[in-house]
Amino acid sequence: MNKIIYIASLLVLLSCTGTKTEQQKPMEVTATLKWKTDTILKVPESVLYNVADKFIYVSNINGKPDSSDGNGFITRMTLDGKIEQLEWVKGLDAPKGMGVYEGKMYVTDIHKLVIIDMATATIEKSIIIDSSEFLNDVTTDAKGNVYFTDSGAKKIHLYKDGQVSLWSSDPLLLKPNGLFALENSLRIIDMESGLFYDADYSTKKLTGVAKDIPGGDGVMQISKNEYIISCWQGEVYYVNDSTTQKILDTKEAKLNAADSWYVDAENLLIVPTFFGNSVMAYTITKQ
To answer: If you placed Cys at 255, which of 14, 54, 136, 273 could pair as Cys (CB 3.0 to 4.6 Å)?
Structure first.
């Protein structure tokens, strides 16, 4: 069975599994603006909240997304939206996804995985990924394994024990972007197909979770079966099992919704607006 037929079959299956849920009263989820920064950021692509130090980190491309110009930097902010240090770490090219584990920050930077020592705010190591095209999102699991996508080359890589290896190049991956590491599997949003997948760590087999999420960028978990997915063009979706609900749309305001983050303790969704040069935070309410 070729991948086109498989994806078509998967879409039909997801349509069928969504029917029973749609007959039930859907949960109403709303996003209410809480704060936004001034437009002093420089093409913010990704945000991350670090529980250990209670800071928000923002990757700033500061130029073209594929330009190796040395202009990129990471901003550090407080949880109430105040910029604590605009250029916390600089000297990057076009930084995108970020992940943190035990005091180290892992950042994709076009063709490199950059490791930052957070205590000293210095670049510790830059690893060039051979044959990479457009490295994108990052996630870390409970063991410190670092997974990151190459949206251009349709691959997912793994950084483990100081070595980078190819984790998946499944033909179903058309433009993999956002990742979220669970205990036993990896959640993946594909920007091109709009499909949300679960991939078992052992078999790496992709199983469809939800569909119709165009331009998916960031994946966030609210609870076991609940997720929020931000979409680059300016939409945010709430996903519960196989059903999806659009909870935010900023396209008319010409604000993107790039690789976002959800702070569970605050019910707070933090969204980098990319070309909007700001970060916006929304309180998420479920009824």
So the answer is: 273
Q: What pLDDT, on the 0 to 100 scale, is given for residue 223? A: 92
Banded pLDDT at 3 (limits 50, 70, 90): low
21 has a pLDDT exceeding 90: no
Tokens found for residue 162: 């100081």
Q: Is 86 left (phi over 0), alpha (psi -120 to 50) or beta?
A: alpha
Q: How many helices (H) and strands (E) does the chain have?
A: 1, 24
User: Hey, what are 31's tokens?
Assistant: 């996003």
Q: What are the tens digits of pLDDT across the range 234-251?
A: 999 999 987 999 999 999
263-to-98, 202, 217, 244, 275 alpha-carbon distances in Å: 15, 29, 17, 20, 23
Phi, psi of 3 (to 5 degrees): -70, -30
Using an 8 Å Cβ cutoff, are 80 and 37 in contact? no
Q: Would you say the C-alpha torsion 204, 205, 211, 212 has a positive or negative sign?
A: positive
Beta carbons of 77 and 55 less than 8 angstroms apart: yes
Q: What phi, psi does 47 have (nearest 5°)?
A: -130, 155
| Amino acid (1-letter code) at residue 285 | T
Three-class SS state of 71 = coil
pLDDT of 6 > 60? The answer is: no
Q: Which pLDDT does position 22 carry in this prediction?
A: 43
Report the predicted TM-score, pTM, of the whole model to 2 decimal places: 0.92
- At the top level of CATH, the class of 32-286 is mainly beta
Give the confidence band of 10 by pLDDT, cuts at 50, 70, 90. Answer: low
Q: Coil, strand or helix: which one is 45? A: strand
Query: Are residues 137 and 96 in contact, defined by beta-carbon separation less than 8 angstroms?
Result: yes
CA distance 248 to 251: 9
Residue among 256, 268, 211 nearest 81 (CA): 268
